[in-house]
Amino acid sequence: MKVLSILNEKGGVGKSFIATQFAYFCRYKLGNRVLVIDLDQQGNSGDILSASGLCQASSVYSGEIMKEGRTIEPTSEFLVIKGDDSLLELSDVGDDGVVTYNLSVAITNVQNDFDICIIDCPPSADVRQFAALSVATDYLVPFQVKAESIAGVDKTLSRATVIKDSINPDLNFLGLLMSLVRMQGIQKSNYEALLKTMGHILLKRYDPKTKTESGVCCITDRSEYAAAQQMKRPVFFSENGQTRKEALEVARVWITLIHQLGLPIKKPIKIEKDPQTGKLREVSTPIEQAKPTASAEENVQEQVTNA
Fold first, then answer.
1. Cα–Cα distance between 254 and 147 in angstroms, integer?
2. How far apart are CA 174 and CA 5, in angstroms?
3. What is the DSSP letter of 209?
C-alpha cells in the first residue's frame, strides 16, 4: 500500500481539494481500494467524502487513533477517517514518538486492505505533520504561486528532509504542485520566476502517450473545482454525461501522481446519483476497460468521460 501525505504549513493551498479529488479518481477511475485519513481538526476532507454518499466514514476518528492507539476496521474499500477536536490534544500525550507509533501501527494493520492511503495534513508544523511524514511512502507539497505560500515551502521541505534522514529513509518526494493558479498579474510573474528557480523540484507532468515527462503540473483556479467540493462530488462526475473540460485538465495531474506512485490500474467503477437521496452511489457493474491496446494510463485518461 502506498501512503501519500499531502502537506504545507500554509493554509488555503488546496490540500483538501487534492486529497478528496485524487481519492475519488483512484477509487472510480482506477478501481483502487482507498483509505483517506484527515488529520485536520476542521475536517474538510472527511466531511466532503463522507457526505458524498460514495465514501464510508469510519467509526473511529484520527485523533483517537493517534492519541489512544485505536485501530482501523476496513469496513469499506473506500473509507475515510475523519478529523476531530481530539487532534488538538495530541500535545497532552507528551511523546511525539507514541503518537507517531500509534498512527504507524493503525496503517500497517490495514496495509493489505487498501491500495493507497491518502493523508491530508493540517496547515501547521506540529506532531501531526511529523507523524504523517514518518509513516508515508511519498509526500506532495501543494502551494499557491504567492509570496506567503512560497515562503512556507522551504520550511516544509527542510522538515521532511530531517525526517527522511533520521526516521524514514524510504520517504519519496513527488514534487511541488502549483495549486489554485491564476495566470495573470503577479501570479503569472511568480510562475515564470518559479520555473527558473524551482523548476527542478516542481511536479513534472507525465504524458502517457509518449511515456515522457514534459512541462510541470499545476491546478488552475477554476470555479468548477470549488463547485465540486461544495456539492461533494468528483470533478469528473456529470449528470448529463457531458465531459467537463476541467475534469480533463485536472486528470493530467492525477495521472502524473498515479504514474509516480506506481498505483495498480484495475477496472473503473461507475457512479450515479441516487434519485431518492440525491447523493451519489456506486453502480455494482464495473465499467468495461477501454482500448486494451492502449497503455494503462491512456485508458485512465480516456475513462474520465465514462463514469
1. 26
2. 10
3. T
C-alpha closest to that of 102 among 133, 136, 127, 71: 71
Residues 209, 166: contact at Cβ < 8 Å? Answer: no
Could you read off the pLDDT of 233-261 as tens digits, one per residue? Answer: 999 998 877 778 999 999 999 999 999 99
pLDDT tens figures, 113-123:
999 999 999 98
Cβ count near 93 (within 10 Å): 15
Kindly tell me if the per-residue pLDDT of 304 is higher than 60.
no
- H/E stretch holding 248 reads helix 245-261
Q: Is the pLDDT of residue 268 over 70?
A: yes
Tell me the whole-structure pTM to 2 decimals. 0.92
User: pLDDT digit string (tens) for 173-186?
Assistant: 999 999 877 766 67
Per DSSP, which regions of the chain are E strands?
2-6, 34-38, 56-57, 78-81, 116-120, 138-143, 172-181, 204-207, 212-216, 218-220, 271-273, 280-282
50 neighbors 38 (Cβ within 8 angstroms): no
HSE (CB half, 13 Å, CA atoms) of 240? Answer: 3
The rounded distance, in Å, linking the Cα atoms of 49 and 28 is: 13
- How far apart are the C-alpha atoms of 265 and 284, rounded to whole Å? 18
Torsion angle (degrees, nearest 10) of CA 168, 19, 79, 135: 10
**Average pLDDT over all residues of the chain:** 89
Report the amino acid identity of residue 11.
G
Sign of CA dihedral 109, 110, 115, 121: negative
